[in-house]
Task: inverse folding
């Protein structure tokens, strides 16, 4: 490899770290009801598993254990239809409200429950009254599917000021892994600085527990800002709000982005697609891992129990971005292999990347 080739490869390598940031998306299309799971009862809080092959949601349909249960459905591929829904059963579901499921790596599930437990954060084991437009308030719990259809005893994530849960209402946990660590986004009305439901973030500590939430000021207002979900790469967040600009009935879906995971979020914007945000109430939006599918719940009015919808958009590679070739690995891996094969060493120094030939 001559000097010119080395310089060219290094230039590509220096930009490879920003490949993820180079991707962009087309506009959202027209939402469609997820017919496989919608019933005459209430369905909401939809979210895909990380691999896109399971869809978790909350429902008050018959056959559950409580006032609202967590259900799921599977499909063979991301282009296949969803199968019949199944109830997660005990101990995840209880006689009370169990909702806002969030499947994460390791066959684990974050969710919210209003069932009083020995480790809950309610004074006197009495959940606070339900907030407007929602079930009884609850805490965030974690359970793991140790074998098919067998779940571990749910564990409360801890009470403020040591953990994220409060005596108020927590909604919609969303876990994101970044170079800076693992962060749990959620909404709450129980913190000293809460102005109704606000968006909070809690960092996972060295011992695996989560610390108290910190209000995300750029996403929160004096209005009701709730149920956040962050894209897997940590660069886009969606949530529901009735802030100025929302339609008359209740909640609309808002979106914010950031250039990297250590930067503040942009000013939230209401999704302008009139087929997504309507005069109905749109809540608990969630993004697929690749960002091309958006699920949400919709209630037409106070008498409508609610259904689940999904809308799609195209993933667009920006001009000049690098792409992985099947079987070769990521652009970074390919470039490193090429340089090392020619006896070159790379050292990242302040101010850029330097190659030294031996």
Result:
């Amino acid at each position: 490899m001559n000097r010119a080739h080395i310089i060219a490869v290094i230039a590509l390598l220096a930009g490879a770290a920003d490949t993820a940031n180079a991707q962009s998306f087309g506009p959202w299309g027209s939402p469609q009801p997820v017919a496989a799971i919608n019933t005459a009862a209430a369905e909401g809080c939809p979210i895909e598993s990380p691999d896109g092959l399971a869809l978790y949601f909350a429902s008050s349909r018959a056959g559950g254990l409580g006032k609202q249960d967590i259900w799921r459905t599977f499909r063979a591929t991301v282009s296949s239809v969803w199968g019949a829904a199944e109830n997660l059963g005990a101990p995840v579901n209880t006689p009370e409200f169990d909702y806002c499921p969030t499947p994460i790596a390791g066959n684990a599930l974050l969710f919210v429950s209003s069932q009083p437990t020995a480790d809950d954060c309610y004074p006197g084991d009495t959940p606070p009254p339900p907030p407007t437009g929602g079930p009884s308030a609850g805490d965030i719990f974690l359970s793991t599917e140790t074998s098919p259809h067998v779940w571990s005893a749910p564990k409360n994530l801890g009470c403020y000021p040591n953990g994220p849960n409060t005596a108020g209402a927590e909604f919609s946990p969303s876990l994101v892994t970044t170079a800076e660590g693992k962060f749990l986004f959620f909404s709450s009305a129980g913190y000293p600085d809460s102005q109704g439901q606000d968006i909070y973030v809690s960092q996972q500590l060295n011992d695996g527990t989560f610390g108290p939430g910190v209000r995300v000021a750029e996403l929160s207002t004096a209005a009701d800002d709730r149920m956040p979900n962050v894209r897997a790469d940590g660069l886009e967040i969606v949530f529901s709000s009735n802030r100025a600009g929302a339609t008359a009935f209740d909640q609309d879906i808002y979106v914010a982005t950031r250039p990297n995971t250590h930067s503040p979020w942009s000013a939230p914007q209401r999704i302008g697609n009139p087929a997504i945000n309507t005069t109905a109430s749109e809540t608990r939006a969630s993004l697929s891992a690749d960002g091309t599918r958006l699920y949400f719940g919709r209630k037409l009015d106070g008498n409508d129990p609610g259904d689940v919808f999904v809308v799609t958009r195209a993933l667009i590679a920006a001009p000049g971005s690098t792409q992985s070739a099947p079987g070769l690995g990521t652009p970074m891996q390919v470039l490193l292999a090429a340089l090392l094969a020619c006896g070159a060493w790379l050292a990242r120094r302040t101010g850029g990347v330097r190659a030294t030939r031996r």
